Amino acid sequence: MQRVTPHVFTSTTIRGCNPSYVVTTAGVVLIDTPQLPTKAVQMRKQAEAEGPIRFVINTEHHVDHIFGNYFFKGAGEVVHHQGVADNFMVPTPDLDPFAYAIEAIPTDDPEAAAIVPDRDTYYEDPNRGDLVFTGDLELKVGEKTFHLIHTPGHTPGQIAVYVPDERVVFTGDTVFSECQTWLMTSDVEQWIGALDVIGSLDVDHVVPGHGPVTTPAYLATQRAVLLEWTGAVAEAVALGWSREETIARIDFRDKFGPVDIGQGYMMDHIQTLNAASLWDKFTTKRSPAR
Q1: H or E segment and range at residue 231
Q2: pLDDT of residue 69
Q3: CA gap 68, 41 in Å, rounded
Q4: Cα(267)–Cα(251) distance, rounded to whole angstroms?
Q5: Residues 43 and 149 in one domain
Q6: How many Cα atoms within 13 Å fall on the side-chain side of residue 162?
Q7: Helical segments of 56-109, H only
Q8: Which of 222, 211, 225, 199 is nearest to 260 (CA)?
Q9: In 3-state terms, what secondary structure has residue 148?
Q10: What is the mean pLDDT of the segment spanning 205-212?
Q11: Does residue 174 form part of some domain?
């Protein structure tokens, strides 16, 4: 684990999100859990060596932020925004989250084969939220206050976790630091608003969902990435490009960095997914106002 401050730890060098924890005088608060099972087990041991785990907070519902919850059963209350609870490990036409998580084990965590449950066993109790909230939430643990701020955009239930005493904010995937941004089914306008909210916080350290720990200055870079993607696809639509033309001609692989650790093979998929999802949004016919 990387020590960000004397009491804040994160891991930015494994496949999946950046799982983190904060040590307080009354126990430990986790922010997101490792996707890889052996890393989840290891992180639990490390965290519990610092004190009892009081809360496990998930910043979003994407599988790389929540799959590891299974290995933290019995370790503190699990905290979700309602948007996370509504979508927790729910298969969609585009993605089976359990299959996606299992796919990474042979290549990135082969030793996990002995501890990964089968699908039915997993879904009996994947360790969903015990405390589910809407809007924002404040938790007091020991001497520290944790502000869970609803920052929708990347996902509807997205939150940032702000710890003023440590001058740190955990953004989840509102920030992809120095790596490719996954737009997926995001609302880019809300996402930019979320960056404004995070930018208003008094912090020195920004722990992103993916990529290295950064500073508030990087928020402008993340905004620029979103605007370049939307601007390029909006121009394509204005020029009358088809969906296929837009996918073929808009590509930011050489500008916005590598894919995060362990997913280099998905570069083509990201470029296609981002261009296609934006094209679909910009060309969807809206019902006239009444």
Answers
A1: helix 218-238
A2: 98
A3: 8
A4: 10
A5: yes
A6: 19
A7: 63-66, 82-87, 97-103, 105-108
A8: 211
A9: strand
A10: 98
A11: yes
pTM of this prediction? 0.95
CB atoms near residue 134 (< 10 Å): 11
- Residue 244 CA to residue 116 CA, distance in Å, equals 39
Return the structure tokens found at 7: 């009491």
pLDDT in tens, 255-276: 999 999 988 999 999 999 999 9
- Backbone φ/ψ region at 76: left (φ over 0), alpha (ψ -120 to 50), beta: left
**237 shares its domain with 155:** no
Alpha-carbon dihedral 271, 275, 277, 278, rounded to 10 degrees: 140
- The per-residue DSSP string of 169-187 comes to EEEEEEEETTS----TT--
Judge whether residue 288 has pLDDT over 90.
no
Structure-block tokens of residue 72: 């933290």
- For tokens 């910043």, the residue is 59
Any domain includes 71: yes
Nearest to 73 by CA among 2, 144, 148, 124: 124
